[in-house]
Amino acid sequence: MSAGSCAVVAATLGLAGGRRAQGGQSTTYYCYYNTVLQPNGDSEAGVPAELRVYSPKDSVVLPDNSVVFAYARVYIPAQGPALLDAIQIYPFPGDPSDDDYDNNLPTIPPFLFATGIIRSVRDVTTLDKNKYVLLEVSDRVRDGKKGFTFEAKFTGATPRWNRVPLPSLQSNAQIIGILCNERRTDGTVTIEAESLTFNALPLATSADGAGPPPSTPPAKKRKYNAYLSSGSSPMSPAESASSLAGPSGSPQSGGREHVRASGEEMPSRQPEDPETSGSSSLTVLITASAEDVGAPTAKAAGKRKAKQ
Questions:
Q1: Which CATH number fits domain 10-97: 2.40.50, 1.10.20, 2.30.30, 3.40.50?
Q2: Which neighbouring-strand residues pair with 193?
Q3: So what's the pLDDT on residue 304?
Q4: How far is CA 268 from CA 252, 256, 258, 281, in A?
C-alpha cells in the first residue's frame, strides 16, 4: 500500500435486506444493504457486495428493491463480497414494489476511480490488441485501511490507446474505468480503462527500503532582504529620479542649474581638480589681501590731492 492511494466507485445499485446497526466498536449507527456491482446492467453477472451507509438518528431503512446512485469507497477482494462505504447515496424516486419502477431508470455501469502502484504490465497487442496492467490500491473501508489489486484493460478497439505507452513497474498512476464481466483466474476483477494519469502520487518506496531522492531544500529565510517578501519590484531609475523632484516637479537642491533672484541663470559650480584646488584657493586669498591693502592707500592719495 502507498500513501495517497484511493479507490472509489460510482454505481447504480439495487438494495435489499436492509438493517440498521452499530458500526463495529463505535456508537455510530449505519444501515447495511446487500447489493451487486453489475457491469453494463447485466443482472446475471457482477460482484456481490455489502453497502454501508451512515444512519442518523430516527432514519429509516430503504425498502427492498430500492435503487440508488452511490459514491462509495470500495474494497474488492479476489474472493468474497466487496465492501462499500457510502460517501453519498441518491435514491431514485418511485415505488420499488411497482412493476414499472425499473423501466424509467438509466443504465449506468459501475465506474471505478483508483490511484495506486503499478504491479504488473502485460502487452498482448499481437494476440488480442489489448494491453493490461495490475494496479494495487487501498482506501479506508470499514474503519480500517484495506488494499486490493485489480486489472485494467486498455482495449485495442479504442484507437487512442494504440499509441499510449503503458506505465512502468512500481510507478504510480490513476486509472478510471468501467467494471467488466470478466475476471482473472484468481478472482481479480477487471475494468476497461477510460482514463490514465501518470505519476499521480509520490514515487513508490523501492525494495531496499530507500525512498525517493530528496527534493531541493527550500531557500533559507534571510533576516534582511533586498526585496519585500510580497514580491514588489525595486524602484526603477525613472521613478528614482522623479522622487528627487519637488512638489511642482522642479529639481531640488543638488540640481544642475541655480537661478538668481533676477531670473538670470547661473551655471552651477564645476567640480574642482584635486591637483589645482589648493593653488586656486591660494590665488584667491592673495588677490583678496592685495585689494584690502590697496584700498586705504588709494583713499589717502585722494585726500592729499584735494588739499593741494
A1: 2.40.50
A2: 177
A3: 57
A4: 13, 6, 6, 18
